[in-house]
Design brief:
6-stranded parallel beta sheet; single chain; 2 domains; Rossmann fold; 7-stranded mixed beta sheet; Quinone Oxidoreductase, Chain A, domain 1; alpha/beta; 30% helix
Length: 356
């Protein structure tokens, strides 16, 4: 290949983090810049967040091996700028700062036709089923684009996806004046606790066995952190003056013992929103759930697009989750970013693509 031909080829490529091999890790590679269709926009990526899903893909566990095609550009949490758009796109402009909904929904199902896009069984995810946002450029259908107001930084824009999970979970039930128990002080659990306080909960308790994450939770939100490996949750609730227990539970850990403890800690008729995913099949004492008249709601992703509206509005009106971002790296140091996430003591990790 001539030098001129090589330069032309490189001019149409971008840097991207690719699941190039069916084993642990990601690889920084040159990939073609996506070609957009008439209904798409091309987004130049500024910041991306590393998600727990990305860690599963990095580790190449059983779920990832059964779900993710190889090769694939991964990543689905992002903020960037529109640099090109298709001829049918309306309401957006070149140079506009945006994030986006990473769930690509179909249009034919009963759920989609009813406007319940988050329940569409044909949903595919960017960075999981389709090429994603760990790249200099992302192609996204304009329907999925979320405009970022000036008050929301690129760093926060890059974590709106997981914040949306937290908002969807926390706002599953009326929180005003209620006592809320959050199990799991990962980044989404911490943000859910912050949302609960912002939405008017009287008391919010968050549990975990990781002291670093419990400390982070107390720094991000007005919550009571409880290490259940050392502290008795029942004693904590009694000291707080809760006569029967907690009204609402937000299960964010995926830990069966945490769910069992939550059921025991709720009032009669208590309600649970469950985002955490237990590994495999787990034994459940259904008799306790029935006799306590517990309501359990499974939560997946975000309500498209109501959750986006609510979380952006809350951010504009005082909700502050910026402290949940504990590490920022240039994307060239992505391996260190993943090490921090895998280590289990970090909050959100944000990668900066602007220097590529």
């Amino acid at each position: 290949m001539s030098t001129a031909s090589n330069d032309l080829r490189l001019a149409n490529t971008m840097k991207a983090l690719v699941k190039a091999h069916a084993r642990t890790g990601l690889w920084m590679q040159n990939e073609p810049i996506p070609e957009i269709g008439v209904d798409d926009v091309l987004i130049k990526i500024n910041k991306t967040g590393i998600c727990g899903t990305d860690v599963h893909i990095w580790n190449w566990d059983e779920w990832a091996a059964n779900t993710v095609p190889v090769p694939l550009i991964t990543g689905h949490e992002f903020a960037g700028v529109i640099v090109d758009m298709g001829s049918h796109v309306e309401g957006l402009t070149i140079g506009q700062r945006v994030s986006g909904e990473g769930h690509l929904v179909g249009k034919e199902s009963r759920q989609s036709r009813a406007g319940k896009f988050h329940l569409d069984p044909e949903t595919r995810g960017i960075g999981v089923n389709e090429h994603g946002a760990f790249a200099q450029y992302l192609k996204l259908n304009a329907f999925n684009v979320i405009q970022l107001p000036d008050e929301i930084s690129d760093d926060i824009g890059a974590i709106l996806d997981p914040l949306g999970n937290a908002v969807h979970t926390a706002l599953s039930f009326d929180l005003l004046s209620e006592d809320v128990l959050v199990t799991g002080a990962g980044p989404i659990g911490i943000m859910a606790a912050a949302v609960a306080r912002h939405a008017g909960a009287r008391n919010v308790v968050i549990t975990d066995v990781n002291d670093d994450r419990l400390t982070l939770a107390s720094q991000v939100a007005d919550v009571v952190p409880v290490n259940v490996a050392r502290q008795d949750l029942k004693d904590v609730s009694v000291k707080m003056g809760l006569k029967q227990g907690f009204d609402i539970g937000l299960e964010m850990s995926g830990n069966q013992a945490a769910l069992d403890q939550m059921v025991e800690s709720l009032v009669m008729g208590g309600r649970i929103a469950m985002l955490g995913i237990p590994p495999g099949k787990s034994p459940v004492d259904w008799s306790r759930i029935v006799f306590k008249a517990i309501t359990i709601k499974g939560v997946y992703g975000r309500e498209i697009f109501e959750t986006w509206y609510k979380m952006i509005t809350m951010l504009q009106n005082g909700l502050d989750v910026s402290g949940v971002i504990t590490h920022r790296f240039p994307v060239q140091d992505f391996e260190e970013g993943f090490r921090q996430m895998i280590g289990g003591s970090s909050g959100k990790v944000v990668l900066d693509w602007t220097g590529v």
